[in-house]
Amino acid sequence: MAGNHEGIVIRPPSEAGSFLLPATVGCSHNSCTFCVTYKFTRFKLRPFESMREDIELAARYNPGLRRVFLCDGDAMCLPAEDLERILDCLNDNFGQLERVGIYANAGDILSKSPEQLETLASKKLGIAYLGLESGNDEILKKVRKGFTAEQMVQAVRKAEDAGIRTSVIVLLGLGSNAMSRQHAVDSASVVSRMNPSYVSALTLMLLPGTPLYSDYQDGKFEIMNPSSILQELRWFLAGIDVEGPTVFRTNHASNYLPVGGTLPQDKERMLEIIDMGLADSSMLRPESRRAL
Known about the structure:
38% of the residues lie in helices and 17% in strands. The chain is of the alpha/beta class. It has a single domain (13-278), classed as Alpha-Beta Barrel (TIM Barrel).
């Protein structure tokens, strides 16, 4: 179920059954060279009254709704007071509400005080999805992420300490072949310091209209083949050293091989699956079935 939405609806795989409530339109950053999702969407905040109408309408048809996801690209950019009002309205209308999810960037979280984050958590903002993309600052600068790896570590720890679980996303292939190992090793090191509740690896898919796609056309960026991507995934997973429990997933449709488990206890089993994929390409998702 989705509220009134402008443009493309994007949500994490784990929010498939959630009520999708637009709180903003577009992405406040909207500068990453690999992303085309909001390139033609002007960022704006959505009026609370419109959101309340969506919430009340949804409550009529599904009063037992348990999960909500606040769209679009980084609704966490809203002031804490605005987010509290949205959460209060959701709690008032859905008596069985368990969790509200949201996309966030490092600045969204770091701009809020620990007390504000704790208040949001108490009102059932339960998970924030954050795109680390890479733990390597050179790569982050090239793709115009807008934040350093250190800032993202601080943001994740701040959210987790406040009671908001985080789901951190790493983008395989973003360093191309030239920086593949460094991308994997640095990303593993940063994720280890974050110790997030969830971490997922997606695989880069170049999209027309993005600066990175133009670099590819000009011969400035090389797409990695499936075996190189799997090797990068192996380096990444092998290097993660978290206290846990951290759920690890590569179940996104962009990936060649689905792997899942809980770190640290399932690491060796997951590495064995990757090794099987490296040895037998028939296990891999065909290119035609990959998608965003």
